[in-house]
Amino acid sequence: MTFTQIIFLVTAAVILGSALMVVSTRNLVHAALWLIVTLFGVAVLYAILNASFLAVVQVVVYIGAIAILFIFAIMLTRREMRDRGPQLNRGWWLNIIIAGLTFGGLFWMLQGWSGFSKAAADFPSGYDAVGQLGKALVSPTGFVLPFEVASVLLLAALVGAVYVAFARK
Amino acid sequence: MNFWTNPVNFVAQWLLGLLTGWGMPGWLASLLIQFIGVVVLVSMMMLIDIFLVWIERKVVARFQDRLGPNRVGPFGMIQPFADIIKLLIKEDITPDGADKLIYNLAPVLSLMSVLLLWAIVPLAPVIFGVDLNVGVLYIIAAGAIGTLSIILAAWASNNKFALVGAFRQVAVLVSFEVPMLATMLIPTVLAGSMGMNEIVQSQNVWYIVLAPLAGLIFMVAAIAELGRAPFDLNEAESEIVAGYHIEYTGMKFGLFYAGELLHAFTFGGFWAVLFLGGYRFFGLENLGPIVAAVILMAKALFGYWLIMWVRYTVMRIRIDHMLAFNWKFLTPLAFVLLMLTALMNALLRGTSSGVYILGMLLTNVILGWVIIEILRGLSRRERERIEGVATVKNFPSPHPLSQGERGKG
Amino acid sequence: MQNDWLYIGLFLVVGALVPAMALMTSWIVAPKKPNPIKQSTYECGMETVGENWVQFKAQYYIFALVFLVFDVETVFLFPWAVSLGQLSLFAVVEGIVFILILIAGLIYAWRKGMLEWV
Amino acid sequence: MIPLSWYLILSAALFSIGLFGVLSRRNAVAILLGIELMLNAVNINLVSFWRYGDVSMMAGQVFAIIVFAVAASEVAVGLALVISVYRSRNTVIADEIDLMKW
Q1: Which domain holds residue C26?
Q2: What is the complex's ipTM, to 2 decimals?
Q3: Looking at the whole model, is its pTM more than 0.95?
Q4: ∠ Cα B94 B96 B102 (to 5°)
Q5: Interchain contact, B331 vs C116, CB within 8 Å
Q6: Is the Cβ of B145 closer than 8 Å to some Cβ of chain A?
């Protein structure tokens, strides 16, 4: 077992453990904090996968913005923070079975696939992932349409959220 | 290779030879050496941090026409050590109802987020932690952890004032991150890279000359990001007593305080790296890496001094003015500047360097002039609304710029 | 490239250990004499009224929201900025269109009076 | 080196946990937390396919960034809806938001 593999296994354990805490903690603020641990673990995974840009972006966007937004929203809807009553639906044990079946089904489908235990190839020398990404994003043969559509999507989200949250004004 | 041209590598090679000579496996030895490097860098930063306390107190004393610490040691230089001992032996009070783990974690995260920044600062062409190819975004990522620590501290200490303070502080922090991101894009566009070392290497002309407005906006956003005056919401004694760290005492408070000081110095350093040519100073850096590191530190101190100068000169701004200033002025301006810079950079790319520099500089100057004119018009209209048309016409404002600030902000 | 991140990981560990060590030292050295008054929530001498959770106005959410949108936007712009030197003028125009669309969102929020601190 | 299967299994497990959270949580904000977990599971898959496929094809990374944008939009609008409902109905329990039933 190599050093990278050990790091991967530790990270994976942290991710799964904190994800379980996210869905099971009674205190919502704690759930949001466990989500941050999960997201940080995913950022470490990106670093192991050599996707530096995505690792940093994961921290910037998820921990720096989305998690903050969640905490703000939890504190704005304060009534439910002191958690009276059950936090889970009545049929939660049924949902465990559904989730287990989903995992089993995914695993069963994947393990029959030929590329399942593929190893990663080395990077070509002088490979610059960020530069490649930038070129792919704006080249007409690449992803220029998703690039502009993402901008429209964000605009729609901004306008929609502002309108929904403050319709009374 | 000798010590003078590449000191870090020289020491590392020597240590590697020593350790493998003792029979240590190679990968473990190199890991250990990296670890030692990190420990040396972090403890150096902590030492500088202690020194910064002294500088800050001396400088503020001079600004306020006092002497500052002058009893303990020569020029009071031992004073910060005495402060540390005092903080260490103070009783730590954990308030009732505090979330113990998070309460203790928050100050650690706060200082850690600042220390993390020094992993990517290029002290010299060959002295740096790592040369990440996403360095610029890494600054923001480390800042995100700092923002998080503020919310954690306030939430865990179970205090209304702390929570209100943290919310206000975070609202300001995230708001000013937008113009900061936009101005960080400008050196990225000019250098064609996010790597810190590459940005420094490509500054044959300092970017403060090519993009003076960007440097200015970055500095303003950095001061807000640091929570220092005139944006020092977290210390607004009259409104929220001390903000998010109200319930912290002793060393825990000390960690927040140390983090804030080191953060200011660090942003002075990043300002130097992004806009003032980093470790370069008219060829002087070629003398050797140690000279280069000294140059960078001097520039960082200069940036830190600027931040202090602003802090002790300008009064606190109200929070609504602060946010309006950011969203209605800095953010649009930063994005317009970004668009213009990208466009001019593409148009002037083939021309000679003289034309290129002049074009960039003129773009900034013209944009700045247009903005000031717009502000003037707005402030004039505002004054006409308040004081009546006749008064304004008869008595033109003696300070058009300060009036412009008032009308806009 | 992976070694870079290993170094950052080491930095993370040491950067957390150093402040933690300071806290440990103070925990060992400092006196511990708690009493109920000392440990009560500090409100300038007032008794705390009600719960310590106060509900906040939604204004804070709006600023976080606008920030989130612009944050994600710059994530798209950073790769664009890095590779700008190797791209044609057309790519620059694409980026400018991208920014302008989002500025429209900012202007909408502005016109709606959402950026006021009420 | 780590085989691709490890990443896929991890992401499948994370997705299932997120699914469980979405199905069984009563609080609307907690449901959104579960959705974040699922989106992250998707992103792990996309990035690992980029790494284990042809690295000069950037589709994996570009899609991951688009997922970031989608996640951000979803959170922004979703939480705005929750806040809006809370202000008018004073609850964030998904079961109790049943105005549309009648």
Answers
A1: 2-111
A2: 0.87
A3: no
A4: 55
A5: no
A6: yes
